[in-house]
Amino acid sequence: MKISQSTFTIVANGFADGPAQPLRDYLLEHKAKKVIMVNHPLVAEGSNKHLVTTYEKGKLVSQKKYALPNRPPYTFGLDPFVPLKLPDSTAWFGFNNLATLRGLRRKKRGKVQLVYYWAVDFVPNRFGNNPLTKIYNKVDKNVSTNADARIELAQAAVKLRADYLGLDTNKMAPTLTVPMGTWLDRTPKAKDTAWQRKKIVYLGHLVERQGVATLVKALGIIMKQDPDVTADIVGGGPLLDDLKALAKELGIAKCVTFHGFVKEHQDVEAILASGTVAAAPYVKDETSFTQFADPGKLKAYLGASLPIVLTDVPPNAHELEKAGAAIIVKDSPQAVADGLSSLLSDQAKWNKAHKAAAKLAQEFDWNHLLGRALAELGFE
Question: How many separate domains does the chain show?
C-alpha cells in the first residue's frame, strides 16, 4: 500500500514528541492522503483538552478541541468517545491499549482496515492491586492478541508483556521492535566547543521517579566547586515549585533555569544543543516502568550530540556506556555530581564522549526507524 493513497489515524495520550508525533511527521513528510491525530490528556496537571487535528497531503486542514474533566486514570474511560465520529481509515495506530481497542471496534464495523498497537511502555500491575489493573490487563491482552501487529519500544518488553499477560505465542499479534529515535536532519547539535559552556541540561517530566531532586542537589555540590557551571531544566510537573524552592535553599537559583513545559519541540532541541552534558538520574525503584522502557529523552540527548550521565535504570543504559556516550552513576547526589564533574572538568574525556554520542545517534534516526517499520507493515 502506498502512503500517499492511505488514510492514517493516530491516537495517543499527551503531547510529547514521540513516538506518535514522529510517526505523524513522517507521514506528513511523505504526503499521506490524510492523517487524523487524536491527542488525549495524559497527566492530572496537564491540559484537560482533547485535540483532534486533521491533515491532507501534508497540510493542516482542521483542528478541534474538546474540554472534559481530567482526573487520570479514572477519566481515561472518556477517551474512546472523543470525538464521537472519525473518518474511515486505512490504518489505525493506537499508542495505548484503550486507543487500540477503539480501533479494533471500528475495524469490526468496517471503518478501519488495519489496527496496530504501539505500546509506549510496559508496567506490571499498572494501577496497583485494584480493579483498574484487572481491566487494564484484560484490555491489554485483547489488543496484544487481536491487533494486526504489536509494536514495542524495547526487546525486553516484548517477552515481559507476553509472560505477564499469559499470551499464547501462537495466537498473539506479530511483533516489531521500534526504539525511540531522533530527527538527525533537523536536530541542532552541540558543537565541539560546547565543553567551554559548562552547562548541564535535563529534559523530562518533573516527578519523583525521574530523580530531578537528586540532580538539583548534585548541582548544589558542583556549583559550590565551580560557580561558572549553569543548568537548564526543561519540563513541567508536580515537583516544579518544590524544585525551584530547593534550588533557592541551596543558593543556586540564579544558576539554574527552570523552563517548565516547552510546547515546541524545536525549542527543546535548541536548549539541549546549547548544553555541555545531559543528565538522566532516574531513581532506583523496582516498580519504575523506566526499567522496561526506552526513554525518549536519551535519544534527544544523543541527537544533540551530548554525553549523558545516568543511573542504570533504563534497559539501554549499559549499551550507551559501552558505546562511550554515557557514564553510569549511582542514585545519589554525590555520585551524580561526580559523574557530571568528570566530564565538565576534563575536555579530552568530554570530547571523546561527545563524538561517541554523535556516532551512536546515527542508529536512531527517525527516518530510518519509521521507514523500516512502515515497510514491514506493508506501506511504501
Answer: 2
**29 and 128 housed in the same domain:** yes
| pLDDT 10s digits, 135-150 | 999 999 999 999 999 9
Tell me how far apart the alpha carbons of residues 97 and 103 are, in angstroms, rounded to a whole number. 10
Q: Which set of grid coordinates corresponds to residue 163?
A: 509472560
Whether 173 is in a domain gets the answer yes
Tell me the residue ranges of DSSP E strands in 28-105: 34-40, 49-56, 59-67, 89-94
What's this model's pTM, rounded to 2 decimal places? 0.85
Range of the domain at 267: 194-364
Grid coordinates of 237:
510537573
Q: Give the range with max mean pLDDT: 12-21, 101-110, 265-274.
A: 101-110
The amino acid sitting at 23 is L
Q: Is residue 358 domain-shared with residue 372, that is, in the same domain?
A: no
Judgement on whether residues 35 and 69 belong to the same structural domain of the protein: yes
Q: What does the DSSP assignment read for 222-270?
A: HHHH-TT-EEEEE---TTHHHHHHHHHHTT-GGGEEEEE--S-HHHHHH
Q: Residue type for 150, please? A: R
**Whether residue 235 is found in the same domain as residue 353:** yes
The b-or-e profile of 281-301 (16+ CB within 10 A means b, else e) is bbbeeeebbbbbbbbbbbbbb
**Partners of 63 in beta bridges:** 53
Are both 143 and 288 inside the same structural domain?
Answer: no
Specify whether 152 is located in the same domain as 290.
no
List the CATH number of the domain containing 15.
3.40.50.2000
Q: Summarize pLDDT for 35-50 with one digit per residue, the tens.
A: 999 999 988 777 899 9
205, 43 in Cβ contact below 8 A?
yes
Same domain, 174 and 277: no
Residue 294: per-residue pLDDT: 77
**Mean of the per-residue pLDDT values of the chain:** 93
Residue among 210, 239, 193, 190 at smallest CA distance from 45: 239
